[in-house]
């Protein structure tokens, strides 16, 4: 997320603001570099000018020159300004206070409205709500069908997770005008015992009066509690006009930025509040229905400045892992009784947490910035999973019993090479050893139990993998010599 | 190829935003404030920082050298400079003389692929060509239905599989069907994918390769659909997509919105990929061949 921008800030901090070469000219040049970085990231021109002016005043006023750590202090100033640009006044992203809450989603075509409706429904179900989806986009071919499929998929997902039937109803009436569809949906929701109604309205390629009239009419008839504008995070300079017009005409409450899992440059995230006065509430970070995150200005500023976002990382881990399981995993790590079963669990959990590169980007201290540049082959996860799946339960518990013929069987079963099976086994041993060492030296502290085992596994696994790769290369060299 | 009706449409769309040409109507000298104003307007048109800097530097030096004296010369100067940078690359499609022409359509989610395909199909049907669509977006819910509705409206054939099936298999079957039905044009839809998703980029390569099985020189055209409202990110999109599968042209969609699509300047310059079509509306006839002169005129237009 925002890789280009955070790379840039990282470079700027190192190039212009390291102690030793700090002087007024350096500061000026550094600020100029920031200005260019932000413009290149599609941040609105006027927003950039304002931000740069404030940063300059502060940086020169606070006597950065005399500071012991000018780089850090400078980052602090920029961080503060970034947060000010993006922050939302109310802490709660989506307060639900009534028996029936109506949420209206608006936006241009292709911004990701329909998918976001599905994601928001999932987010609310997770909080214990029962939403009704309303297909009011009668304009785009098959939009209704798309929402129906999403509702069905979501229902199946939740049923599977909860082990009991759960339905996400979708109301549609293609023959009716959209305002009527939306209005009719409300008594249906009440009857159906739904406490949330999510309206998926039509988008247009561009703003026209017909669309605005339709949306206004829906707004009037349903009196929504929240109106969200869905916007593509890759949007360029001009399209802020559309957000502005939507806000002026139908008064939005907040923005959902989509496709942040791309290499979106961050312009929309940084500009939207300043341009419209309305904050970003949620961000979409993937194609799956659980890929919706709450937006927090300070965390986003952290990510942009390469300071990582450990809070979101922990949040994600917590969401996916219950406390008991985390404790169990932690114990296993401490006494090194960690098996292939557990490794498989960990892999599956990490996969659920999202795109690996994005996860890495959340690591603090410049590490995130560097890790985002490392090429991560995500298919390695599926290969490792396949290998473990081809092991017998006994082998998973005691990988040490895996001999040559077992390895051959596993490699055949998983469609991988014997070398890959070897590599995994070596990595596993390495990991265990590391865990033993860590628990001996007391490195599993409060931090670990607080963070849940998942993270520890992630941290432990990565160096293990790298190390094993290098070693196998070395081995090859040795063999050649012989 | 087309009538030049688009200029009015583009101009109408651009009229909503601040015009660069507006600058020159006010009696002003070239000073710092003027240049900053110009910078703002160029950047707001998504022209990008590099091109903007280049233009402003060129303008400054011409002014110093006294090549430019009057303010109304500036507009001509900018236009000439931009046109030079956006030389027409030829927007003709490469058609297969013996057998069907295969067109692969790719792009990120929400860029307007399906609608653009409908526009292309309509365009070919107008030319009395027999068109067949391949519903290769097997991922997004109801994408197949959406394309099917268009096929019905235009009155052409479509080859589809179930949602979730292998898009490469759809592509293969579409080519097969086109050969046996003697179609002139096959347009293959693909699922929207973010250019940062490596495995999906690999899938694109697979589709690309499968198309060659029956017709070795296919696909004859690989069109990247670029949303004109996208900012500088469009450059990376074009870059990464063309790394996965060589792009033969860009279809700039949604140009009738508030966006000016200034980013194509950078794309043509840096990546040497021609813009072939522009999409101007929601109906299937709202498509034009790209004309660089017209585009620059609209970008800097006075009205």
UniProtKB/TrEMBL annotation, chain A:
Which EC number(s) does UniProt give?
3.6.5.4
Q: Which InterPro entries match?
A: AAA+_ATPase (IPR003593), P-loop_NTPase (IPR027417), Signal_recog_part_SRP54_M_sf (IPR036891), Signal_recog_particl_SRP54_hlx (IPR013822), Signal_recog_particle_SRP54_M (IPR004125), SRP (IPR004780), SRP54 (IPR022941), SRP54_GTPase_dom (IPR000897)
Give the transmembrane region(s).
Answer: 443-468
The kind of enzyme this is, by top-level EC class, is hydrolase
Record has Acyltransferase as a keyword = no
Region feature Disordered, mapped onto this chain: 462-482
Q: Which SMART domains match?
A: AAA, SRP54, SRP54_N
Q: Where in the cell is it found?
A: Cytoplasm
Quote the record's binding site residues for GTP: 107-114, 200-204, 258-261
Q: Which reaction does it catalyse?
A: GTP + H2O = GDP + phosphate + H(+)
> Which residues belong to any copy of the SRP54-type proteins GTP-binding domain?
279-292
In this chain, composition skew of type Basic residues spans 470-482
GO BP term, pick one: SRP-dependent cotranslational protein targeting to membrane
Which GO MF terms are attached to this record? 7S RNA binding; GTP binding; GTPase activity
GTP-binding among keywords: yes
- Assembly and binders: Part of the signal recognition particle protein translocation system, which is composed of SRP and FtsY.
Q: Which family does it belong to?
A: Belongs to the GTP-binding SRP family. SRP54 subfamily.
Q: What is this protein called?
A: Signal recognition particle protein
The organism of origin for this protein = Uabimicrobium amorphum
TrEMBL record, chain B:
Instruction: Please state every residue range assigned to the domain named SRP54-type proteins GTP-binding.
Output: 274-287
How would you describe this protein's topology in the membrane?
Peripheral membrane protein
Q: Name one GO biological process term.
A: SRP-dependent cotranslational protein targeting to membrane
What are the recorded GO MF terms, alphabetically? GTP binding; GTPase activity; signal recognition particle binding
Q: Which Pfam families match?
A: SRP54, SRP54_N
Q: Where located?
A: Cell membrane; Cytoplasm
Q: Which GO terms describe its cellular component?
A: cytoplasm; plasma membrane
What EC number(s) are associated with this protein in UniProt? 3.6.5.4
Could you tell me what reaction this enzyme catalyses? Answer: GTP + H2O = GDP + phosphate + H(+)
Q: Report quaternary structure and partners.
A: Part of the signal recognition particle protein translocation system, which is composed of SRP and FtsY.
The family line of this record is: Belongs to the GTP-binding SRP family. FtsY subfamily.
Query: Which NCBIfam families does the entry mention?
Result: ftsY
Described by its record, this protein's role is as follows:
Involved in targeting and insertion of nascent membrane proteins into the cytoplasmic membrane. Acts as a receptor for the complex formed by the signal recognition particle (SRP) and the ribosome-nascent chain (RNC).
Protein name listed in UniProt = Signal recognition particle receptor FtsY
From what organism does this protein derive?
Answer: Uabimicrobium amorphum
